[in-house]
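Appendix C reproduces, verbatim, an entry submitted by the partner laboratory led by Prof. M.T., so that reviewers can inspect both the input and the predicted structure.
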Amino acid sequence: MIIAGVMSGSSLDGLDIALVEFRDEEWSICETIGIAYSKDWEERLRRYHELSATEYITLTYDYAHYIGQLLKSTFSKLNVKAEYISFHGHTLVHNPDQGYTEQIGNGGIIAGITGIPTLVDFRSQDVATGGVGTPLAPLLEVNYIKGHDYYLNLGGIANITSVNDGVVSAYDVCPCNQVLNHYSLMVGLPFDKDGIIALKGAFIQELSDYFSSYDYFQQSPPKSLDNNWIRTVFVKDIPDGTVEDVLHTYCIWIANCIAGQVKSSSNSKLYSTGGGSHNTFLMSQLRNILAEKNCELIIPSKEMVDYKEAILMAALAKNYLEDKPNVLSQVTGSLRDGIGGALYKV
């Protein structure tokens, strides 16, 4: 069975696609593709909160047609045929405390355009049963990438999974690339390649204190962050500073936040993926702090770093199709494990 996992991250950089073949308990990656959003779509998704109700509905349908056509065109050029599409959708709002989460990308439209059965909507059932709807990654980490004590993903938000004596805990740690990219855009760059801009800055204690000032960072899991809160509160209220100083300080703060989730032990391992894992300055800070806790930082192949979340979507679909739980209550806080997703057949 070959499933195309499709992920749209909160950093608005585009789609990550991984075609994954599952054979019994074995799995392998057939193809990985990255597709950048057009400037028009990047802007439309960024400004969704300014829309009227009718304009918002139009956005959601236009987006589904856009994704459907992108996938149809992409798949037509491949030698590998996907039997299913598993699409996370693009998260606009995530507020489980109020009982809602919104990932746009209508599965019926995508299935209709591509002619391939499509799964979407993996979070809403968990939220309805008392969970925070995230993270979903532990399913992949515990079952498919075994052998590590911690699993870190540095996307728009940094999230971590810890595995300790069979007990799995996973949650959002702090905003990550959403903040780093926001400041990079101020100097005309989509992101801070290798952390070169951050390297030029200085550590500012006032900035670090601000980053730590929100109650969220002292809360115990399960917990999750909302992209809308990051944009309208966290980023908006950052004290003034040069781009270099903010990026420098923020990278060090991220590293300390992550290391704060790791217990001092002997020979533990942290497996890091996501775009932030390419930030050399951030990784050097994290590696040094983890070393003080006898924890080894492991950065896998570029394919795994860049496409882990797309691979996750394929794994979620596999469990759904086999009628097995794919959302784990012990990490989301839900009343029970769930089989998240809605399948649109063709």
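The radius of gyration is 19 Å. Additional entries are available on request from the coordinating office.
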